[in-house]
Amino acid sequence: LFESMIKRDLDTKDTGNLFGPHGGLLDRLDAVFFTIVVGYYVSVALVY
Length: 48
What we know:
The protein is about 65% helix and about 0% strand. It starts with a helix and ends with a helix. It is mostly helical. The chain is elongated, with a radius of gyration of 14 Å. The chain has helices at about 1-10, 25-45. It has one domain (about 1-45).
C-alpha cells in the first residue's frame, strides 16, 4: 500500500519492467510485505 501511494504521487504506473505488463518487483511484492507485517502482529497477539 505504501508503494502504491508513492506511485500515485509520482504519477507512475509501474516501478519497473521486470515482469513485463505486470509491473516491477515492488508492484508484485507490495501486498506481500503488508501481509507479512499484519500476519506477524496477529500471531503475536494470539500468542500473548
